[in-house]
Amino acid sequence: xxxxxxxxxxxxxxxxxxxxxxxxxxxxxxxxxxxxxxxxxxxxxxxxxxxxxxxxxxxxxxxxxxxxxxxxxxxxxxxxxxxxxxxxxxxxxxxxxxxxxxxxxxxxxxxxxxxxxxxxxxxxxxxxxxxxxxxxxxxxxxxxxxxxxxxxxxxxxxxxxxxxxxxxxxxxxxxxxxxxxxxxxxxxxxxxxxxxxxxxxxxxxxxxxxxxxxxxxxxxxxxxxxxxxxxxxxxxxxxxxxxxxxxxxxxxxxxxxxxxxxxxxxxxxxxxxxxxxxxxxxxxxxxxxxxxxxxxxxxxxxxxxxxxxxxxxxxxxxxxxxxxxxxxxxxxxxxxxxxxxxxxxxxxxxxxxxxxxxxxxxxxxxxxxxxxxxxxxxxxxxxxxxxxxxxxxxxxxxxxxxxxxxxxxxxxxxxxxxxxxxxxxxxxxxxxxxxxxxxxxxxxxxxxxxxxxxxxxxxxxxxxxxxxxxxxxxxxxxxxxxxxxxxxxxxxxxxxxxxxxxxxxxxxxxxxxxxxxxxxxxxxxxxxxxxxxxxxxxxxxxxxxxxxxxxxx
Length: 553
Fold this sequence. Notes:
49% of the residues lie in helices and 11% in strands. It is α/β, with parallel strands linked by helices. Among the domains are: 23-186, Tetratricopeptide repeat domain (Serine Threonine Protein Phosphatase 5, Tetratricopeptide repeat), CATH 1.25.40; 327-457, Response regulator (Rossmann fold). Strands 7-6-8-9-10-13-14 form a seven-stranded mixed sheet. Strands 2-1-3-4-5 form a five-stranded parallel sheet, with helices on both faces. Helix 8 (94-107) runs parallel beside helix 10. The chain is elongated.
């Protein structure tokens, strides 16, 4: 009991040093830039741009301010901030500043100025990004522009690829153009098709994050609630990214707010970074996902939905993945556990009105019947009707109850609360299988029940026995002055899982690597099995044992 309580104490807070709190606006500003609130980010960064007060940090603040200004369409302001930064030889982010300044020049139509700054970049990762930008901004320039500047910029692969395509569009070539073209066709641009023509850097893992931060629709994130689950997921992804970079992993991550708009998604997919991405995380909702899945299939880029269990739209696709178990995986996990651990084959199912729970109840009933189970009830419930469901199967009558196993498929605390109260007051002995989300409801102390008959279906559940979990939570608190939510844990695990399965050491073929790896232990969860699967097949059924959550598989 004491061990279990200690685990939950991790969710309580304590005060942090004033110095950490002083940097909260700075850290908040960097996060805001990544999901679209540029004006507020700029306001938060301005005080930190004072070099006399903040020293080297002022250079970083100025760079992030310029990044926000660029994304806000303020290209002249971007230019004015960056002109000093690119000449600071002691600052270690010069190349990033040069790249951003080049983008601003491209936006202003000052192509030669942009190309001049790109030619001075030495970092190979930034060079690749700059060459991608060169291609995208110059692909409609005239052949004359290219031929007039080819000697100066022939090291820029984006410049040369755009020239190659422009010459190919012509029906007649001059002798000079023919000679240039003969050289171009021997160059290796790493192109697979028209949508993915820039050579990918196999020393860097490029991750594109597409999430609807405004999942109800709309622009900007100024008024997002603190418990916005998309923002929480992003926090976990972002925290893992920074941690992995500190460990020496070569990552390039860019985030985009889809605004729950298919038009916005289409615009995002035209971004140069998407053409070179090794993996795409998100979006979540069907209308957005269909657009991205089609893009991912054409370009052979793995697309991962981080939160969904529903895979019915994946039929015929080769590059679409669920990070969590599918409907069938969850159903199989429940049935397998019941067959091996519970006496009796009468099954009562209650489910909420969500798409996942409706489909899961249907699949569970169909698959269970094929294996000899009898479905005595299969009812949709809510907080008010749950007790009626339990009364209809006569659960109060102990061994005379109509069901041997009760399965309640819902993540709704309004369903969980009356269920817990009923079990506690009636001292029910029949096994009850529920989703692992019930473990995190603050009203339910399952250790207080006389009968320890609750079993929890793992849906990428957090493993509280993992030593990495404590380290993650403490480090997260130190940065955000608050412990991570469940969705932040999922985002953190997802980024680690991606870097384990796609990296320069093992290669960038996710499908091959998952098949070779088989079961993999999680960093903060119970683990994964994606062998011959595009969703997590590992669905242990958990139980509380002496204050600890244990895997019953």
